[in-house]
Amino acid sequence: MTKIMDAPSMPGTASGRDALDILCPMHLVIDATGHVVHAGPTLRKMRQGQGIVGQRFLEVFEVKRPRALTSMADLRGMAQQKLRLKLREAPYTALKGIIVPSIDGSDSMIVNLSFGISILDGVRDFALSNADFAATDLAIEMLYLVEAKTVAMEASYRLNARLQGAKIAAEEQAFTDTLTGLKNRRALDTVLTRLLTQRTSFAVMQIDLDYFKTVNDTLGHAAGDHVLQNVARIMVAETRSHDLVARVGGDEFTVVLPDVRSNDILRRVGHRIIQRLEEPMPFQGTDCKISASIGTVWIQPGDITTMEDVLSDADVALYASKHAGRAKQTLYTPDLRNAANAVVPPTEMGDKSA
User: Fold this and answer.
1) CA–CA separation, 243 vs 277, rounded Å?
2) Alpha helices in 14-99 (DSSP H)
3) Any idea what DSSP says for residue 124?
4) What is the pTM of this model?
5) pLDDT 10s digits, 221-278
6) How far apart are CA 246 and CA 314, in angstroms?
C-alpha cells in the first residue's frame, strides 16, 4: 500500500497521515492504479456502509469539470487544478477538489475535497457536525451561522405563532358575546357589510324573545342567563353552519342566512326556531316559558341598500309579528312600514312586556 510520506513524522505525536486527517478530514490518497489507499475521517463517515478505501477513485466520483477525465494519467495531468465532482451514488452530493502529487516521490496523488456551496446539503445528508471539519475551515463558521439562524428562525416562528394566536383570540373575543358564545353586533356589522358589497342574496331575521322580562322578574337573572344560553344553542342547531347567529341586545338576536333561494326556506327556519323556543326550559325545578317573534327581510341579488335600511326593515317586520300576537314570523314588505308608521312610533317597536 502506498504511503503518503516516508519521511519522518511531522512535529508532535501525530504521523503525517494523522496530521492530514486533522487538517484535511476530507482528503484521500490515490495510488498509481487509481485506487483509494487512504481516506480522511469525514469521507469515511460519508461512505459508511459502502466503503471507499480499495475502490477506484473514478468509480466513486464522477468528474464533472474538466470533462473527459477517465484515467489516473488524466488526473495526474490536472495536478493543482480545481475539480468539480459528484458522488456516483445517492445522494449524488456535489463536491469541489484539488489534486496534488504526494511529496514522498511516489506515483500516488492526494486529493482534498470540500462541499463548497453544497455544505448544507452535505451536513444534512451525512449528519455531519463541526467535528467533521478542520477547526480552521470556514465551513465551521457557516455551520454556526446556519445553526444560529435556524434557532433564531424557530424562535421567531414560535413568537409569531403566539402573537398570531393572541391576535386571533383577541379578534374572536371582540366579535363574540361572552354569555352565549354567539357573535355580537360588531361581527354582525362586518358580515352584513361584506354581503352588501357582494350584492348577493341573503336574509336577515330579527328575533325578539317574548315574555323574557317575566322570567327575569320572577326567577332572577340567573334564570334569564340560563334561558339566553339555551336560546343560543337552539338557534345554532336550527341554522346552517355558515349562517351567522348573533346576540345584539339583552334578549334580541339576529340571524343572517346567505344564499337564500325562497321564502319557503325562510318560513321553515323561522317556524322551527319558534317551535323550539316555545318548549319549556327547566331551571332549578321551575319551567321557564318564552316564545319568539321574528321579522325577516330577504335581500335579492343586485339590490342596492344599506345595512341600516336592512336592519330597519327587519325591525318593521318584527313589530308586525309582535302586533299580530307574538310567536310569529313576518316577512317584510313595503306595506308593513306604512302600517307601522301609522300605528306606533319606531322607538316603541321593541315591546318587552309580558
Assistant:
1) 19
2) 16-23, 41-46, 57-60, 72-77
3) H
4) 0.54
5) 999 999 999 999 999 999 999 999 999 999 999 999 999 989 999 999 999 999 999 9
6) 14
